[in-house]
Amino acid sequence: MHIRHATSGDWPAIWLFLRHIVSDRETFTYPADIGEELARDIWMLDAPGRTVVAVDASGTVLGSAKMNPNQMGPGAHVSSASFMVDPAHQGRGVGRALAEHALAWARAEGYRGMQFNAVVETNTHAVALYRSLGFEVVGTVPGAFAHPSLGYVGLHVMYCPFH
């Protein structure tokens, strides 16, 4: 697996799984019926953000990550990131590789930490992955996410300081 900067040519592959993941309404706060143009604007970031793809030896896009300052102005010293792995390629370490890449990028860019604003508490695989990489749940907003089968569940705010 190789992680590289995402290009406009990668967008069709990203859109295929992003649309599916978002429409499932289990892990992302994006509208389930998000249009392609809005999705591209949200996901394909310009500097100071960055969007990458994980690809296999044949060039197949396995997943993608976007990284950016968490806030503007006085909050711009903390980074954030989002990750999506094509469901057809889950369980192969793609999410971990993307998260490790995002953390390395943020450290190299001089951020003081990384914050995730909305990790669905029932997304146990993601929560466990982020904890294994040094993130802590610093708070949970009860009932902030309308899960399609579990009802209202919490959204974790997770943080990993860089020392």
How many domains, in number, for the residues? 1
Nearest-integer average pLDDT: 97
User: Can you summarize the main beta sheet?
Assistant: 7 strands, mixed
Which H/E pattern describes the elements?
EHHEEEHEHEE
CATH architecture: 3-Layer(aba) Sandwich
* Helix vs. strand class: alpha+beta
Based on the model shown, name its key terms:
Aminopeptidase, alpha+beta, 7-stranded mixed β-sheet, 7 strands
Provide structural commentary:
By secondary structure, this protein is of the alpha+beta class. The chain has a single domain, classed as Gcn5-related N-acetyltransferase (GNAT) (Aminopeptidase), CATH 3.40.630. Helix content is 28%, strand content 36%. The protein has helices spanning 11-24, 36-43, 94-108, 124-132, and strands at residues 2-5, 50-55, 61-69, 78-85, 113-120, 136-147, 151-161. The protein starts with a strand and ends with a strand. The model has no long low-confidence stretch (mean pLDDT 97).
Q: Topology of this protein?
A:
Blueprint: E1 2-5, H1 11-24, H2 36-43, E2 50-55, E3 61-69, E4 78-85, H3 94-108, E5 113-120, H4 124-132, E6 136-147, E7 151-161
Parallel strand pairs: 4-5
Antiparallel strand pairs: 1-2, 2-3, 3-4, 5-7, 6-7
